[in-house]
């Protein structure tokens, strides 16, 4: 997976986009969907899934986080940026997801 840009400098209220390119399709032939997730990691905390199945938001994730794309090209858009959004973001192809609530 290749993400661009490597770094983003933005201010509150901005819209930012992060692109993710896979070397091959992330389509899961059993599940019948693109198995692409976006993770957010804040300093000193473990990563957490914010988007799965390309565009589905995890519970509690604001609507301003928008996942899109298909095939090998995907985008995470964050609208109305806030200070709470600061951190590292990763795209990831997955085979299974274990959810703990």
From TrEMBL:
InterPro entries: Ig-like_dom (IPR007110), Ig-like_dom_sf (IPR036179), Ig-like_fold (IPR013783), Ig_sub (IPR003599), Ig_V-set (IPR013106), IgV_Light_Chain (IPR050150)
Recorded superkingdom: Eukaryota
Gene3D superfamilies according to UniProt: Immunoglobulins
Residues annotated as domain Ig-like: 1-101
Pfam family, one: V-set
SUPFAM superfamilies: Immunoglobulin
UniProt name for this protein: Ig-like domain-containing protein
